[in-house]
Specification:
Layout: H1 3-30, E1 34-38, E2 41-45, E3 51-57, E4 59-60, E5 67-72, E6 75-80, E7 85-91, E8 93-94, E9 102-106, E10 109-113, E11 119-128, E12 136-140, E13 151-154, E14 160-166, E15 168-169, E16 177-185, E17 189-197, E18 203-209, E19 211-212, E20 220-223, E21 228-231, E22 237-240, E23 245-246, E24 254-258, E25 261-265, E26 271-277, E27 279-280, E28 288-292, E29 295-299, E30 305-311, E31 313-318, E32 321-326, E33 329-333, E34 339-342
Antiparallel strand pairs: 1-2, 2-3, 4-5, 5-6, 6-7, 8-9, 9-10, 10-11, 11-12, 12-13, 13-14, 15-16, 16-17, 17-18, 19-20, 20-21, 21-22, 23-24, 24-25, 25-26, 27-28, 28-29, 29-30, 31-32, 32-33, 33-34
């Protein structure tokens, strides 16, 4: 083979590799299906509203990381973005994929599978939550004699990287994970208090809260029993909540309510969308469902109504479409508000 040809081929290899990666990435990002209900059960349509999976499952969830949980004959499995059944229904309960793993339960014990369906963490835990940052909180089953069932964190192979030492624990986000321990209250009784641990299992925020949510946009919503607010990664209260209700941040906005009216604040605590709605849900894909005069529409991050309120119900966007209810029927709309599929 001529040397010039070899040199030319080598020069083009990075370009070819990049193109192939681009094709694969587009396939993974662009292939999203949406659950629908029909006479035969649950099926799936694509973003154009075309039926890809004929209704036939007893239940079906939305896609996450290229897989959707489906239920048949009382058991759960998963399909891929082409509608192929990649994990046969064999589990009593499953959760959506997160961090390349899905937690599954059978006979009262939890484990984790990978995207191919292989059981990569055995079914041996009394409780479990999703993987994030390469770790998952799990509750140990059948502890040593004299020990309690405590929560700790495992890696993707099932090895404990943070020893079971907590009454409860939740998934990592932003390098912090909510965890709870029992603390004496008034030197008389034990009460559960929440804080946040770092990736070594050390307390990054001491357990002093009655309730906590995980970090999002660098802030976590916590409650002390007397007041609520958002703390930073050191546990400093940076946004005291002066509203009747507040929810964690999503895409730089947190929904808040006062006197039954809903709006949104930004990560400085400033109200960026007025309390003008009867109800609101979190932002996703840059839009949030809101209700006015009994009908749901969608606003952008500045509060502009980009899809007029005309739906009986609406849910946040997932990919190109959002699920709504229109004239008593389930439907999907695109980002312009156009109906791409409507059921019977």
């Amino acid at each position: 083979m001529p040397l010039a040809f070899l040199r030319s081929s080598v020069r083009w290899l990075p370009v070819l590799f990049t193109l192939l990666l681009g094709v694969e990435a587009r396939g993974q990002a662009g292939e999203r299906l949406y659950p629908i209900s029909g006479a035969g059960g649950v099926g799936y349509v694509d973003a154009a509203g075309e039926v890809v999976v004929t209704p036939g499952y007893g239940q079906g969830r939305t896609f996450s990381e290229g897989r959707a949980a489906v239920r048949r004959n009382g058991r759960w499995g998963f399909i891929d973005a082409a509608g192929r059944e990649v994990v046969a229904p064999e589990y009593d309960e499953v959760a959506d994929f997160a961090g390349g793993r899905a937690r599954v339960r059978r006979n009262g014990r939890w484990g984790f599978i990978d995207r191919s369906g292989a059981l990569v963490v055995p079914l041996k835990y009394a409780g479990a939550f999703d993987f994030s940052d390469g770790k998952a909180p799990v509750k140990r089953a059948d502890p040593p004699r004299g020990a309690k069932d405590k929560w700790g964190f495992i890696d993707t192979t099932g090895v404990f990287v943070i020893a079971p030492a907590f009454e409860e624990a939740r998934a990592f986000a932003g390098g912090r994970a909510p965890a709870a321990v029992l603390r004496k209250f008034l030197f008389i009784r034990l009460e559960k208090r929440w804080g946040f641990v770092d990736e070594r299992g050390a307390w990054a925020v001491e357990p002093a809260f009655v309730s906590v949510h995980g970090f999002s946009d660098g802030l976590a919503l916590v409650g002390t029993g007397k007041r609520n607010g958002f703390v930073d990664g050191r546990g400093e209260m940076v946004i005291p909540v002066a509203y009747d209700q507040a929810y964690p941040f999503a895409e730089g906005r947190a929904r808040v309510a006062e006197g039954g009216r809903w709006g949104f604040i930004d990560t400085t605590g400033a109200r960026v969308i007025d309390l003008a709605f009867e109800a609101a849900l979190d932002f996703r894909e840059g839009l949030a469902p809101v209700r006015q005069r009994g009908r749901w529409g969608f606003v952008d991050r500045e509060g502009r109504m980009v899809i007029a309120p005309r739906f009986e119900r609406a849910w946040p966007f997932r990919g190109a479409l959002a699920r709504v209810r229109l004239d008593g029927r389930p439907a999907y709309v695109d980002r312009r508000g156009a109906v791409v599929w409507i059921g019977e």
